[in-house]
Amino acid sequence: MNNLEQKIKELEQRVDLIETNQPDDKLSVVVFSGDLDKTLAAFIIATGASAMYDEVVMFFTFWGTAVLRDLKKKIKKEDIMAAMFGKMLPKGSSKLGLSKMHMAGIGTAMMKSLMKKKGVMSLEELMKIAGEAGVKIVICEMSMNLMGFKLEEMIDYPNLSLGGVAKFLQEAASSKVSLFI
Amino acid sequence: MNNLEQKIKELEQRVDLIETNQPDDKLSVVVFSGDLDKTLAAFIIATGASAMYDEVVMFFTFWGTAVLRDLKKKIKKEDIMAAMFGKMLPKGSSKLGLSKMHMAGIGTAMMKSLMKKKGVMSLEELMKIAGEAGVKIVICEMSMNLMGFKLEEMIDYPNLSLGGVAKFLQEAASSKVSLFI
Amino acid sequence: MNNLEQKIKELEQRVDLIETNQPDDKLSVVVFSGDLDKTLAAFIIATGASAMYDEVVMFFTFWGTAVLRDLKKKIKKEDIMAAMFGKMLPKGSSKLGLSKMHMAGIGTAMMKSLMKKKGVMSLEELMKIAGEAGVKIVICEMSMNLMGFKLEEMIDYPNLSLGGVAKFLQEAASSKVSLFI
Questions:
Q1: Among C110, C176, C178, whose Cβ lies nearest the Cβ of A85?
Q2: Beta-strand relationship, C24-31 and C175-180
């Protein structure tokens, strides 16, 4: 009898540990590229997942950080090289180009026109829906620093924070699905 | 005694739930890029996984959908912009270029020649093997719609279907490994 | 009583199996691209993970293999096409370009200068730290063969080996997180 109780206790401890280590019903996405097409794919996956999974976290890093700049927010940059980089990079979602067939903007304009015609949501609409659906956005601090971007020039978004690679790795470790886009 | 039975019952329910939530021995791959090199990588991983995992599902989206067009199948497009887009995108696996060093086709031809010489399977051979090995292909409906592609112009493949982002997210949630290529 | 013992035994077997199938605290990364920015991202994630996870494995394939060439090691190539390919591809980490805004090397030089100024580690420093932290590197045998690279021309790295797609799929199947970069 004591023996059985002991065995059950051991099993309970093992099951406790398994439950603790189980991933959450969560999607983690790294948005590295600042291309229109890849960013669209990231937000289509993220908004889709917000309806099916418990939690969705998007990490914007490198070129991806430029996607989140707000065209209307103007800030002064002291650092000359950061100012130059900031000018060369697309200022926000409406200025992105396709990773292929951009063709000096013609291909990108064609794609946007096609999307409208076919009833596919624009990137701006997807970002709005993502915000409303509780999709979390974390912007890579190191990339912001590198590109010379400041939090004040980023879009207004319900659930936006700064974070590092450790934040991504922590979320990914407890996610069912992790993608690098 | 009752107490022990109760504890065992509770444990059984917890273990049931854990088993239900366990991922399948499955690989889900998003094939976003229509580049020769990345599509090759996707099929090398997919055919490799078909021998080691229980199930492999490939989701073709955006530029990736152009990979699956059949050069020999001709269909009339009513939509002018869709027809233009269709003409500009590579028609099938034999027309893809490298993501790097394409060099107006010279680099791509060199790579194909090198692959042949070194005994690396061509994309067409890999696709055939994937089909025979039971690798499932899902083509993104929204992308097909956007690019103006029709199911009738796609390759003959044993296990091909149309699907949306929800289908990918459902498969990924129950996959051991998910990749975005 | 016998009945309870039987039930406990069955539960133990089910929990054994669940534990066996649990992923390790491990990250698997495919480094496909030979771009400076993406390779930096891969090593920032890998070195970050080496401090948080039990194990990190990086698989270098296709263009990624060129990253690992050692500028100082010279070997003779018999195969003319392999020799040509070898000349055209970047020779090691210091010769990589950005995936965007490379601008004939100006953008890449600007980025490297910015990284230095902002105290972001260079790729070479990250690779050194990765090696010291026990991050494993596996180079894709097929890609080496295709590009005409030899193991003798690769960098000195504490934990470097050759492997195929099966090695990646095996590691990924037992990893918490798998990424394709």
A1: C110
A2: parallel
Position B112, amino acid: K
Checking ipTM against 0.90, whether it exceeds it is yes
Residue C32 to residue C28: CA distance in whole angstroms: 13
Chains with 3+ CB–CB pairs under 8 A to A are B, C
SS3 C6: helix
The residue length of chain C stands at 181
Q: CA C57 to CA C46: how far, in whole Å? A: 8
Chain C residue numbers touching A148 (CB-CB < 8 A): 114
Q: Are B148 and B85 in contact (CB under 8 A)?
A: yes
Quick: pLDDT tens for C55-64: 999 999 999 9
- Integer CA distances (angstroms), C171 to A61, A125, B120, C8, in order: 26, 39, 23, 33
Q: Is there a contact between B130 and B53 (Cβ–Cβ < 8 Å)?
A: no
**What is the distance between the alpha carbons of residues C63 and B100, in angstroms, rounded to a whole number?**
8
Rounded CA-CA distance A48/A68 in Å is: 20
A115 vs B contacts (CB less than 8 Å): 146
